[in-house]
Amino acid sequence: MAERKQDFYSSFEQPNDNSVIISRGPNDGRIALKAAGERLHVIVLGEPEGECLTGCFREGLDRGVLRPNMRALVDLTRFTGAVDWSAIYTVRVMAPWGNDKDASRIAYVVRNNMFGALIKIAGVLFSNSRHRTFDDFDAAVAWLESDGRE
Q: If we measure between CA atoms, which residue out of 49, 60, 50 comes closest to residue 22?
């Protein structure tokens, strides 16, 4: 039986037949990626070092599981601490993320509106992708799986 698209995002720890999980860092500062096809799920826990982010993305690119036009769910609900902007910029230059014809979509699930500035800066850095914030996991997944019209 084929996995429903929404199930990809709801069962992070349970890879399906074609998903790959990549993780870096200790439990109090970890980045974890789950990738399959056109979908990417990123979880940020605690205050991870920038090398955790760059290491996960480098491995994903090297293994061929990350592509420039993915539908990404970024869970920031358990992120605490400072943003390592140099690491985010390093990820930016690793690949031509998104393009005008088929822009990637990135849904950020956040705990509060304090993440607004962070997402606006990410939108500038990754300008060929569409970015939206959500405080509801299901709404984020629904937007990712929609036809993309606002």
A: 60
Tell me the whole-structure pTM to 2 decimals.
Answer: 0.88
| pLDDT per residue of the chain (150 residues) written in tens, 0 to 9 | 334 444 566 555 555 668 889 999 998 999 999 998 888 999 999 999 999 999 999 999 999 999 988 999 999 999 998 899 999 999 999 988 887 566 789 999 999 888 888 899 999 999 989 999 999 998 999 999 887 555
Beta bridge partners of 44: 31
CA torsion 7→21→44→133, rounded to 10°? Answer: -40
HEC secondary structure over the chain: CCCCHHHHHHCCCCCCCCCEEEEECCCCEEEEEEEECCEEEEEEEECCCHHHHHHHHHHHHHCCCCCCCCEEEEEEEEECCCCCHHHHHHHHHHCCCCCCCCCEEEEEECCCHHHHHHHHHHHHHCCCEEEEEECCHHHHHHHHHCCCCC
Domain boundaries, given as residue ranges, for the chain: 5-145
Q: Would you identify the CATH topology of the domain 5-145?
A: Transcription Regulator spoIIAA (3.30.750)
